Amino acid sequence: xxxxxxxxxxxxxxxxxxxxxxxxxxxxxxxxxxxxxxxxxxxxxxxxxxxxxxxxxxxxxxxxxxxxxxxxxxxxxxxxxxxxxxxxxxxxxxxxxxxxxxxxxxxxxxxxxxxxxxxxxxxxxxxxxxxxxxxxxxxxxxxxxxxxxxxxxxxxxxxxxxxxxxxxxxxxxxxxxxxxxxxxxxxxxxxxxxxxxxxxxxxxxxxxxx
Length: 210
Description:
mainly alpha
């Protein structure tokens, strides 16, 4: 086996280990979230937030590390030796690495804690129809997301940065053109329905059904 083959084999082994560990972290955090919206007693969000913060910090340290960067560079430099599936995995991991590596670990941990607390407040506010109590948390989340977008691409519109991360390649201009096309058709259609359409039955909403 040549030196290049040995390096690729070691990188592939490291990739498999990284994916298994990241899956474990994400699985644990997902189960904690699931517990929070199902059977977790009230008043437990503070401890849960600390746990999620620590787990997210560990996953950040594992993924956004020099070792991960070096592993991806080895795979990228030898992409011809990879299967199409592994090559694509490396491409997606590089994108995720670039996105996460630019966010300071302590801010990433604080963000996970904030989202956990906001989720609890949101459930309470929804039940009480009290948006005002949730509004401060929403503002903090938006501020944090703006900061994360700025870390990643300081010269781009933060909304477009996050839009691209959610749907790679999508831009504000494309969204504006798409919704403008919808508006040209749907607004006249709705007006026509309001002018000539019949009222939709709603009595069934208040009836008792087996």
